[in-house]
From TrEMBL:
<keyword id="KW-0548">Nucleotidyltransferase</keyword>
<keyword id="KW-0479">Metal-binding</keyword>
<feature type="domain" description="Nucleotidyl transferase">
    <location>
        <begin position="6"/>
        <end position="242"/>
    </location>
</feature>
<dbReference type="InterPro" id="IPR005835">
    <property type="entry name" value="NTP_transferase_dom"/>
</dbReference>
<dbReference type="InterPro" id="IPR029044">
    <property type="entry name" value="Nucleotide-diphossugar_trans"/>
</dbReference>
<keyword id="KW-0460">Magnesium</keyword>
<protein>
    <recommendedName>
        <fullName>Glucose-1-phosphate thymidylyltransferase</fullName>
        <ecNumber>2.7.7.24</ecNumber>
    </recommendedName>
</protein>
<keyword id="KW-0808">Transferase</keyword>
<comment type="similarity">
    <text>Belongs to the glucose-1-phosphate thymidylyltransferase family.</text>
</comment>
<dbReference type="Pfam" id="PF00483">
    <property type="entry name" value="NTP_transferase"/>
</dbReference>
<dbReference type="InterPro" id="IPR005907">
    <property type="entry name" value="G1P_thy_trans_s"/>
</dbReference>
<comment type="function">
    <text>Catalyzes the formation of dTDP-glucose, from dTTP and glucose 1-phosphate, as well as its pyrophosphorolysis.</text>
</comment>
Amino acid sequence: MENRRGIILAGGTGSRLHPSTISVSKQLMPVFDKPMIYYPLCTLMSAGMREILVITTPRDQDAFRNLLGDGSLLGISITYAVQAKPKGIAQALVIGEDEGFLDGHQSALVLGDNLFFGDEFDDQLLETNKPHVGATVFGYHVKNPKDYGVLGFDDDGRVTSIEEKPDNPQSNFAVTGLYFYDEHAPTYARTVRPSGRQELEITALNQAYLDRGELRVETLGTGTTWLDTGTHRSLLQASNFVGIIEERQGRRICCPEEVAWRKGWIDDAGFARAAEPVAKSNYGRYLLSLLD
C-alpha cells in the first residue's frame, strides 16, 4: 500500500464550546469514554496510515504530546506542528509541507472533531487509500445541508459543484471533515485566495481539484455514521451514540490500541504494554480482556 501520510487538524479556539474549551482543547474533551482525538486518529489508522502529524494550537501541544506520545506504543509515528492562528483547514497541508512531513507524499486530512463509524466505512477507507490522482471527499446525506459544504451532481452522479453553506443547496449531501489528496495538495493550497475571514478554505481547495476534473466523491451509506462534535448538542449526541453502541454490542469503538493490534502493528506483548497505563479504567480492562 502506498505510504500516504495522515494529518489531524486539532487547532482552533473551540469557541462554539465555550466556556468548556476556554482552558482545554475541544479535541481533548471526552466523547463518552475516550478523548475526542482518538476517533479521527483511528480513522487514519484504519485506512492504513502509520505516519501521522497532529496540528495543534501553541497552548495545547504539550497536552497532546502527553496523551499520544510519539506513537511508538501503537506501532506508528506521531509528530506535532503548530497552527499559530486559525487560518483555515487548507492551511494544514501547507503546514505539513513546511514541516517536512509530507515530503512529496499523498495525504489524508481529517478534522479533530469528526467521528466516523461503520464496518462498510472501513472498507471504503482502505480502497480510498490506494494511490490515485486528484482528491477524494466523502459525502454524507443530511437533512440540513445549508449548514455544510454541499455537493451537486449531474444526472450520471458525477460531482458538478461544491458550495459552502449555500442558500439553495444542490443536494442533501454534505462534505465531511475527511479529505484524501494527491501530492499536489500543498501547492494548490498555497494558491487559494483567503476568504473574507482571511482563511484558506477547504472548499476552495476542493474546488481547485473540481476545476481540474480531479475531484472524486465517495458517498457514505446508511451503515456509516458521521458526527461533527463541535457544539454542545452534537458533543452530547456523539457521546450518547458511542455509549449506546458500546453497551449494546459489548465492544468499544475507535480504540487506537485495538486498531494497531488487529492490524499487526503491535504483538500481544506490545498490546499489553499499550493497555497498561489505563489498566485500572473500564477502557483498559476492555483492552486487556481482548487478550483473554
